[in-house]
Fold:
Amino acid sequence: MEKVIRGRVWRFGDGITTDHIIPGRYFHLRGDLPALAAHAMEDADPEFARGARPGDIVVAGRNFGQGSSREYAALVLVERGIRAVVAASFARIFFRNAINVGLLPVVCDTAGIEAGDELEIDLGANVVRDLTRGLVRGFAPLPRWMLRIIEDGGIVPHILAHGGLGLAFTSGEDDGRV
Structure:
């Protein structure tokens, strides 16, 4: 995985639910991911689905992804080209789903980061830098095995590439517990 990820910020507040990410009224489109993703975040920001570009980064407040356990919430962000979500906190199931579909979740203080800012996530230094505003925020690193799954594009591609989960747990820095 790249050590440094840069992208333009799409900013959201606290309590963004899976229904904000992909409204349930579009559930019938779940067999057509591009059609489903055309409605991503439309209730939170109607410009998002039309304006999000590959490499952009979603930044939010507390409890991003709360609500239902639908994996499509993370999948539509990946389909729109979002590389990472940086939030003050995540709902547990969304965090797991993000990793499972290859979307990088980063937990850090997001106060002061605004829509349109240029953000840099430095996985080597474990910092998020707002290059527009000069803010620097530290974050706890993800275990290497999670980064391997994200790097491979999610849990299914990881298993297919490595014949199982075992290779995700082979570094000396992780003990293999999930």
Q: What stands out?
A: The mean pLDDT is 92. The chain has two domains: 4-141, 143-178. Helices lie at 18-21, 33-37, 48-51, 72-79, 92-101, 144-151, 155-162.
